[in-house]
Design a protein that fits this description.
Largest sheet: 5 strands, antiparallel
Helix content: 25-40%
Oligomer: single chain
């Protein structure tokens, strides 16, 4: 089993504004670090270098990041032990607070989650709380292979 994740953020400013320029300018760099990190498998991307064109919501200020990792530990390693950590520490400068902005779930090896699947997991977590179906770092569940 592999770990899928979706996280969303709502920018305080339009994505082309000077107030968020530093964040946007570093997205490609941070995404590159993710792709080189131990345990990285896949991430949602399009032709744009910073992936801010991917829209799962009506609001263009909501940006998304979706990826698959070998384990919770490998995702945490990237998030908290690389340059990514420095940008996380500054997120309140650029983004509004969203209560349910991250969802984790287990997928079969080789499965690439869809955007629809990811949104379903995020909405489930928001409505029902953490479970094996959709969880967070604070309330995680071990992978259980389908029988």
């Amino acid at each position: 089993m592999q770990l899928a994740q979706l996280n969303i953020a709502k920018a305080k400013y339009p994505l082309d504004s000077p107030e968020i320029k530093e964040f946007i300018a570093n997205l490609d760099r941070v995404n590159g670090i993710a792709e080189q990190s131990k345990g990285f498998i896949w991430r949602l991307k399009d032709e744009s270098p910073d992936t801010t064109d991917i829209q799962l919501f009506d609001d263009p200020r909501i940006i998304v990041n979706m990826s698959v990792w070998q384990s919770i530990e490998s995702l945490k390693g990237f998030m908290f032990k690389t340059l990514h950590r420095d940008f996380m520490r500054r997120k309140s400068e650029w983004f509004e607070r969203i209560d349910n902005n991250l969802v984790l779930w287990w997928v079969e090896d080789g499965h690439t989650p869809t955007q629809v699947e990811a949104l379903e997991r995020l909405r489930y977590l928001s409505r029902h709380g953490a479970s094996r179906y959709a969880f967070t770092f604070k309330q995680s569940f071990e992978a259980v292979a389908a029988k």
